[in-house]
Design brief:
Layout lengths: L1 H19 L2 E6 L3 H9 L6 E7 L3 E3 L4 H5 L9 E3 H4 L6 E5 L2 E5 L4 E4 L4 E4 L2 E4 L3 E3 L17 H20 L3 H7 L1 E5 L3 H17 L13 E5 L11 H14 L2 E3 L4 E5 L2 E4 L3 E3 L2 E4 L3 E3 L2 H4 L7 E2 L5 E2 L10 E3 L5 E4 L3 E4 L4 H11 L3
Parallel strand pairs: 1-2, 1-9, 2-5, 9-21, 11-12, 11-17, 12-13
Antiparallel strand pairs: 3-4, 6-7, 7-8, 10-18, 14-15, 15-16, 19-20, 22-23
């Protein structure tokens, strides 16, 4: 009995020590990867989880085009992060932007030093940003679609353009105001151009007297031979057929050479347009460029982190930048698309400590 009591007391003491020093996990990014990582961590005293994002809401980016085209309100595609983990007592949520990393001291730095978070394990689920493939000056004259703020800015610009067109007597200016160009024939570009065509033909059709919204031009430009070129050809053909029925002008095999205010130049033509939307590419988070590469990792020209199968770039740091590279580094490299299912799988996998 004494031996049993002694063994029980020893186990209780060990448990108390373990609980007094929980494993500190810092997850940066509240996208699908970050949420999956937090959800996969056990809800007990052995873990102390801090989830940090520069915004206090989780965003379903796949439906941003609906907000941009006035089909949905922002509240319908965003959820407060704190509400998601309200019942998780070992999870706290902070709003901040990661700006530096002290790997030697295991400290994640946020908001240029305003906040320091110590960690035992750091999970990076930073997401991506719009890439102009080295033509960063184009960002001044076109609009990206990666946030609610950008979606609302696009909506405002398009709707106000119709209002201005209703008032002007200059036919050339009216034509320019009623021209929307979407650059990039991937899923975002295809969905966005189709949604604008429906907005023009169905929602705004009866609301104006001096103009016919049906006269608005919706142009989709893709540099490769077909839209949705990452998908099977039959899906590309179906998308092209649907866009044609909606009245979208699809220009394939046509690369953009320059974008200035209200005008873009391609290899074959110059287009005057009041609204130019860039949906042509994605790059990794800027922080990934500053992460010091380890022998088993590297970064690409688009700021993506190339990682091996274990998704780690150094001891206890796990990147999940929504587009990771699996396989033998620089030998048998396999690129996985920056899609929600991969983000969730990576986040869940990386939480297996």
């Amino acid at each position: 009995m004494d031996s049993f009591r002694g063994e029980t007391q020893a186990k209780t003491k060990a448990l108390e020590v373990k609980r007094s020093n929980p494993h500190r996990v810092v997850v940066v990014g509240a996208g699908f990867g970050g949420l999956a990582a937090v959800r996969a961590i056990p809800d007990n005293d052995e873990f102390q989880v801090t989830l940090v994002d520069k915004r206090n809401h989780h965003l379903f980016q796949a439906l941003l085009y609906q907000v941009a085209s006035a089909g949905l309100n922002p509240s319908e595609i965003a959820s407060p992060v704190r509400a998601i983990f309200r019942d998780r007592k070992n999870v706290r949520v902070l709003m901040g932007e990661m700006t530096a990393l002290e790997k030697e001291n295991k400290q994640a730095i946020f908001d240029d030093g305003e906040t320091h978070l110590a960690y035992d394990t750091l999970v990076l689920a930073l997401g991506g940003q719009t890439s102009y493939f080295g033509n960063d000056g184009w960002a001044q004259h076109s609009m990206g679609l990666k946030s609610i703020e950008e979606a609302l800015a696009i909506r405002k610009r398009v709707l106000l353009a119709f209002e201005k067109a209703e008032k002007t007597q200059d036919l050339d200016e009216r034509k320019r105001l009623m021209t929307v160009v979407v650059i990039g024939g991937g899923p975002t570009g295809v969905e966005l151009s189709g949604a604008f065509a429906e907005l023009r033909s169905h929602v705004l059709k009866w609301d104006f007297r001096s103009i016919d919204p049906g006269d608005a031009r919706i142009i989709l430009i893709e540099g490769s031979p077909r839209v949705l070129n990452a998908f099977p050809e039959e899906l590309s053909r179906a998308a092209l057929d649907d866009l044609g029925k909606l009245g979208v002008e699809v220009l394939t095999n046509e690369r953009v050479l320059d974008i200035t205010e209200g005008r873009l130049k391609t290899e074959q033509r110059t287009i005057e347009a009041h609204t130019i939307i860039w949906a042509g590419g994605i790059a990794g988070h800027p922080l990934s460029q500053r992460l010091e590469a380890q022998p088993e990792s590297a970064s690409t020209s688009c700021s993506f982190i190339i990682v091996p199968m274990k998704l780690s770039i150094c001891c206890e740091i796990f990147p999940k930048a929504q587009r990771s590279v699996f396989g033998q580094l620089l030998k048998n490299v396999q690129f996985h698309r920056n899609k929600m299912p991969f983000a969730i799988c990576q986040g869940t996998f990386r939480s297996d400590f």
